[in-house]
Amino acid sequence: MSTRVVIAGGGVAGVSTAAALRSQGFDGEVTLVDGGEFPYDRPPLSKDFLSGTKTREQIALQPPSWYDDQRVRLVNRTVVTALRPGEGKLELSDGTLLSADRVVLATGAGAARPPI
Question: Can you give the pTM of this predicted structure?
């Protein structure tokens, strides 16, 4: 049975982790869980996409075909809501349970909001 890695977070860190696993020869299952429609580079979203200077494809971290080519299963529009380490499972916001031997938490950070 191959090792199953689930990456929670579809930002730069999550996609880079998936790419690094494959480039280093990892042959197990890789699943990337992303709360959005597709993994995209966050800074250009507010600076370029919303202003109309970049398209959706231009802010994507990888083209859709990359995930298939690299055998990375992309689970969109849901997030990890609970870890069940004793069971080797992750619970997603849509109720799905994913099995994992290893978990990478690449959820990023929220912006600090000053009290003004």
Answer: 0.83
Q: What distance in Å separates the CA atoms of residue 42 and residue 64, rounded to the nearest whole number? A: 17
> DSSP code of 110?
P
Give the domains, in start order, of the chain with CATH numbers.
4-105 (3.50.50.60)
**For 16-50, how does the pLDDT look when each residue is reduced to its tens digit (9 = 90+)?**
999 999 999 999 999 999 988 766 555 545 555 55
- For residues 82 and 90, the answer to whether their CB atoms sit within 8 Å is yes
Strands 97-99 vs 89-92: parallel, antiparallel or unpaired: antiparallel
pLDDT tens-place string over residues 79-106: 999 999 999 999 999 999 999 999 999 9
Of residues 32, 1, 38, the one with CA closest to residue 14:
32
What is the rounded distance in angstroms from the CA atom of residue 45 to the CA atom of residue 108?
Answer: 15
**Can you read off the two tokens belonging to residue 37?**
């429609």
